[in-house]
Amino acid sequence: MTEKTPDQAFRHDLRGLLSPAMLAADQLSLNPDPQIRKLSGQILDSLDRALALLKAGLGNEKRQD
To answer: Residue 45's pLDDT is what?
Structure first.
């Protein structure tokens, strides 16, 4: 088993921190209040962009090896 680089460990930990926020925003998206649903969509969009950046960074790291 290979050890993670500090960068990989940071990204892994950051994804772990974002996961509860994604779950909470998913729950908010079920709220009957349309304003809360709209805001939850904005939160989810932001989190999706953050996760995409993390994945893109991991892809770049693998190509350099």
So the answer is: 97
- Asked if 28 contacts 36 with a C-beta cutoff of 8 angstroms, the reply is yes
Phi, psi of 33 (to 5 degrees): -75, 120
Q: What is the pLDDT of residues 19-62, one digit of tens each?
A: 999 999 999 999 999 999 999 999 999 999 999 988 887 555 55
The two three-digit tokens of residue 59, written as one number? 């892809």
Q: How far apart are CA 11 and CA 34, in angstroms?
A: 33
Instruction: Please count the residues of the chain.
Output: 65
pTM to 2 decimals?
0.74
| 18 neighbors 51 (Cβ within 8 angstroms) | yes
Cα–Cα distances (Å) from 11 to 1, 6, 14, 34, in that order, read: 18, 9, 5, 33
